Amino acid sequence: xxxxxxxMGVIFLLTGCKNNIEVIGKNNLECHHPELLITKNGRNIYxxxxxxxxxxxxxxxxxxxxxxxxxxxxxxxxxxxxLEQILMDGGxxxxxxxxxLIECNTTEGNKDIYIGNKDLEYKQNFCKNNNYTFIRTYxxxxxxxxxxxxxxxxxxxxxxxxxxxxxxxxxxxxxxVIINNLWDITLEKNKTYEFEFMFNENDKEIKDEITYIFENxxxxxxxxxxxxxxxxxxxxxxx
Length: 239
What we know:
The protein folds into 2 domains: 98 residues, no CATH class; 98 residues. It has 4 helices and 16 strands.
């Protein structure tokens, strides 16, 4: 009987410790970019569209930035979460619970941390030494499936789900571009979308032109928007 009580006590302590810490914050639906919270031991720690982030520990609240000054803070937070996925980029881990924590571990040596709400998904610009992206807003004037041959440096390439899209940008000329591998969203005529782009680190002599952007930048995310005119987002291609 004593052994049973002792075992129950150990289990209570372990589960109690796990539930003692909770990260809370407000999800900002208008946000698009990670925000650097702190650089510690050569590692950047970001929040992603997660405002007023705090840690509740033993019924006390402390700002997340102040809390992670402690060298063991990240491990304490991870211990409250469940490991959901390990990526094939070198070992990046995605933890889920009441929040999402992404612990980068890439073959390029990136060890950054991203913290966001429980629905946060891994994005292509995460765990990069230069994770800057920019938003451009376009209205779809026309869209049609595109099946013509495509070439890169004279070499024929095949893409799936390709479309020829005519775009209108506020106070700029209308242009027609090809968008390849459009799997995650269905673009609709006469609707407006925020396109999030990222150039590779080694890209040089970048041109701020619609055609150039769609031919050379990676599309990170596309979101429908109802913003019009000057309310629309048109960010610079460089920080």
